[in-house]
Request: fold
Amino acid sequence: MEYWLEPAELAALRREVGVDPYWVPPPGWKRGDPVSADGYALKAKRQVEELTKELAGVKRHMQQLVKAHQGTMNNEVKPEAVKACISHEPYQDKYECVLKANGNLEKQVQSLEEKYVSAARANGKLEEEVLFLKERYEAVLEKNTRLEQ
Reply:
């Protein structure tokens, strides 16, 4: 353990400022964090004020949007009984149409996948054939150079 002496002026300055000489930082404390509970309260208060300002701005923006679209919006509130009686048939028809379209798209995707697989196989066969022809060309070229010499 290390001990060191501090000047008396430093101790007097600490007392004057109100620093506790026996203060130990709490677990998780980092440099720059407030050293007292009051500091945390001030930090939280600032955050709340910032959020309040931001929320007020969002509310103003929403009010502007509502005013801009007041003519197109229907502000009537329908009773629950009326909402329950609303027919969902047009939505059901649209849903069925979307399901059919989705089925058709799935078939097209499967067809494209099959075409891709067959094209990849054909490409592999062509690569093998090109390599074979390249080897034969090199062999013929080598024989030709021997005959010329």
Q: What stands out?
A: Residues 75-85 have pLDDT under 50 and may be disordered.
